[in-house]
């Protein structure tokens, strides 16, 4: 698998950034589920709207174009540091100080002049692009243009032209994802995926499969969710080496040509905090009302609702999300989906 990934630039770590090399990569689930970032390596200045099953995002790029999936590395880096800080008891702050050199090393990039210039371009695209969406607000339409960050401040050495420090002011959307732990862990080799489509497909698989055994998408659905501006035919061409190489971190890929179905199968390489999952599952199950089981029998006739409840609470606990406020409603949806997929036992 590693032969398809970019070589590690810093396999032994770096003393200058040794305090951050063990930080676990974290990404917000909203942008993993939906295409907030461009897959094009060329400036993408065209306003666009993405819509899927009633959820939509409208993007208004700046003159520098949409932020790319490589620009997203800055946000992943910032989120990862905030989550690590929370675990150490630090208060979450919208303002995040970033050492540019540490960032470049952490994301497996070079540290030359062009790499610092590319970092400036990333900031321009992230800060300049605005969007509005109903995805983050449970279907309630809020006509407010938002950004991924609310600004940035950079200090540069006037003599060398090198960036000395960088401060991001994260948007409420990103901070909310951190505070509510609506984030997922990424494999450490994420930054070694060299093509935009590889990163995007990994994100989709990571969000869909999680710690489950597998998840399948029709190729057309995967194309839509990727946010690719190319045709379905071009998307198939891009997917072919990924499927045949089977090198994505965390997940095997199996393609059923007759059914046109792409299945991601868990490699079981993602660490699982079993004690936490067991505790969360017990808490979620305790929130199910007695009437929920009666309703579940109607939604999944023939199935043992206690068994379904067990599958449901473990599934949700493995997502790493906080305990749902509407546990019964989520359980009903789970039972309906289970029955639609499996029918009677």
Number of individual domains: 3
Would you count the extended β strands for me? 11
Shape, per Cα inertia axes = globular
Biggest β-sheet description = 3 strands, antiparallel
Q: Proportion of β residues?
A: 15-25%
Helical run tally = 12
* Average pLDDT level: 83
Runs with pLDDT <50, length 5+? 12-22
Cross-sheet strand order for the largest sheet: 2-3-5
Content-based structural category: alpha+beta
| Element order: H for helix, E for strand | EHEEHEHHEEEHEHEHHEEHHHH
Spatial separation of the terminal alpha carbons: 38 Å
Spatial extent as radius of gyration: 21 Å
Helix content: 40-55%
Describe the structure.
The protein has 345 residues and is α+β, with helices and mostly antiparallel strands. It folds into three domains: 2-192, no CATH class; 196-266, Arc Repressor Mutant, subunit A (Orthogonal Bundle); 275-342, no CATH class. It has helices at residues 29-33, 72-87, 100-106, 113-128, 172-179, 196-209, 219-226, 232-245, 274-287, 290-299, 305-319, 327-342, and strands at 26-28, 48-52, 55-60, 95-98, 130-133, 149-156, 163-170, 183-185, 214-218, 251-256, 261-266. The chain has a three-stranded antiparallel β-sheet, with no helix packed on it. The protein has a three-stranded antiparallel β-sheet with strand order 4-7-6. β2 (48-52) and β3 (55-60) form a beta hairpin. α9 (274-287) crosses α11 and α10 (290-299) packs parallel to α12 (327-342). The longest helix is centred in the N-terminal third of the chain and has 16 residues, at 72-87. The model is unreliable at 12-22 (pLDDT under 50).
């Amino acid at each position: 698998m590693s032969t398809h990934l970019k070589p590690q630039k810093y396999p032994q770590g770096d003393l200058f950034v040794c305090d951050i090399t063990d930080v676990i990569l974290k990404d917000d689930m909203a942008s993993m589920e939906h295409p907030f970032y461009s897959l094009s390596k060329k400036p993408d200045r065209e306003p666009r709207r993405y819509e899927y099953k009633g959820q939509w995002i409208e993007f208004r790029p700046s003159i520098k174009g949409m932020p790319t999936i490589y620009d997203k590395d800055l946000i992943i880096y910032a989120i990862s540091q905030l989550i690590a800080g929370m675990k150490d008891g630090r208060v979450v702050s919208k303002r995040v100080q970033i050492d540019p050199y540490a960032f470049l090393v952490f994301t497996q990039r070079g540290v030359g002049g062009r790499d610092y210039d590319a970092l400036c371009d990333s900031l321009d695209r992230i800060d300049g692009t605005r969007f509005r969406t109903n995805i983050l607000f449970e279907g309630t339409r809020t006509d407010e243009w938002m950004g991924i960050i609310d600004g940035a401040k950079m200090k540069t050495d006037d003599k060398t032209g090198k960036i000395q420090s960088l401060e991001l002011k994260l948007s409420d959307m990103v901070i909310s994802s951190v505070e509510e732990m609506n984030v997922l862990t990424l494999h450490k080799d994420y930054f070694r995926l060299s093509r935009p489509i590889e990163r995007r497909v990994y994100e989709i698989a990571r969000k869909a499969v999680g710690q489950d055994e597998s998840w399948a998408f029709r190729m057309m659905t995967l194309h839509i969710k990727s946010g690719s501006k190319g045709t379905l035919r071009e998307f198939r061409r891009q997917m072919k080496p990924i499927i045949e190489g089977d090198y994505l971190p965390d997940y095997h890929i199996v393609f059923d040509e007759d059914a046109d179905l792409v299945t991601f199968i868990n490699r079981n390489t993602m660490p699982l905090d079993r004690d936490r999952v067991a505790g969360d599952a017990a808490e979620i199950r305790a929130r199910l009302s007695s009437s929920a089981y009666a309703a579940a029998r109607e939604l999944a006739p023939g199935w043992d609702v206690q068994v379904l409840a067990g599958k449901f609470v473990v599934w949700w606990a493995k997502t790493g999300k906080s305990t749902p406020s509407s546990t019964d409603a989520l359980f009903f949806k789970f039972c309906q989906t289970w029955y639609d997929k499996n029918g009677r036992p």
